[in-house]
Amino acid sequence: MRAGGVFQNKALLENVILILKQKSKKYYINKYFSANDSSIAIGQIVFALIYIKVF
Q1: CB of 1 within 8 A of CB of 46?
Q2: What average pLDDT does this structure show over 25-44?
Q3: Is 47 helix (H, G, I), strand (E, B) or coil?
Q4: Would the pLDDT of 1 be above 50?
Q5: Which residues are CB-contacts of 22 (< 8 A; sequence separation ≥ 6)?
Q6: Which is nearest to 44 in space by CA: 10, 12, 18, 55?
Q7: Where are the alpha helices (DSSP H) in the chain?
Q8: Which residue from 9, 11, 43, 50 has the fewest beta carbons nearer than 10 Å?
Q9: Mean pLDDT of the chain
Q10: 39 CB neighbour count, 10 Å cutoff
Q11: Is the Cβ–Cβ distance between 4 and 40 less than 8 Å?
Q12: CB 3: neighbour CB atoms within 10 A?
């Protein structure tokens, strides 16, 4: 999960999703939090929860 301001750019996000799908990679998109730098910590928390298999 990535939540930095760079992903506010719709064209960039769509291209990244296309590449991830072509490589059969799992990805996550924020629906409930802002797509700005203020949400980076939320992405880090989700990654940590997935990594330690709590979530």
Answers
A1: yes
A2: 80
A3: helix
A4: no
A5: none
A6: 55
A7: 10-22, 40-51
A8: 11
A9: 79
A10: 19
A11: yes
A12: 21
Per-residue pLDDT tens digits for 4-28: 556 567 788 889 999 999 999 998 8
Is residue 3 predicted with pLDDT exceeding 80?
A: no
Take residue 22 and report the two structure tokens written for it.
């072509």
d(CA 1, CA 31): 11
Percent of the chain at pLDDT above 70?
A: 80
Taking alpha carbons only, the member of 34, 32, 2 closest to residue 16 is 2
Distance CA 35, CA 22 (A): 24
Burial class (CB in 10 A: 0-12, 13-18, 19+), 30: middle
Rounded CA separation 1/40 (Å) = 9
Give CA–CA dist 38/4, Å, rounded.
8
